Amino acid sequence: MLCYDCAQQGKDVDTIGICILCGRGICKEHSVREDLPVMKGEYDVELECGMGVECSTKDMQHLPQMLCPTCHKVVKENY
Fold first, then answer.
1. What is the top-level taxon of the source organism (predicted)?
2. Where are the domains of the chain?
3. Which phi-psi region, left, alpha or beta, contains residue 8 (left: φ > 0; alpha: ψ -120 to 50)?
4. Among positive and negative, which fits the CA dihedral 15, 38, 75, 44?
5. Would you tell me which of 8, 23, 54, 72 could form a disulfide with 32, CB atoms 3.0–4.6 Å apart?
6. What does the alpha-carbon distance between residue 16 and residue 46 come to, in Å, rounded to a whole number?
């Protein structure tokens, strides 16, 4: 599989992973590893902090995830 962003630039670069949000193949140059909040739910996002306690994204458990640059920008703007 080739990196989507590199292919758009006319380059053939193998992927090292897949963006967890959009599913694009990403190479080392275009991958962003980010600790994202653990969320559950299909349409309405529920924050999972444990023990029924109200929380914000700052209080949540975070997991490292691989994102493409486009999805990383969107995620950072929204949490």
1. Archaea
2. 4-78
3. alpha
4. positive
5. 72
6. 30
pTM (predicted TM-score): 0.64
End-to-end CA distance of the chain: 31
Distance CA 31, CA 40 (A): 23
Amino acid at 36: L
pLDDT in tens, 19-50: 988 999 999 999 998 776 665 555 455 555 66
**Two tokens, residue 71:** 């999805």
pLDDT, position 3: 96
The model's pLDDT over 44-68, given as tens digits with 9 standing for 90+, comes to 555 556 666 666 656 555 567 889 9
Quick one: which H or E segment has residue 6?
helix 4-8
From 36, 35, 37, 23, select the one nearest 70 (Cα to Cα): 23
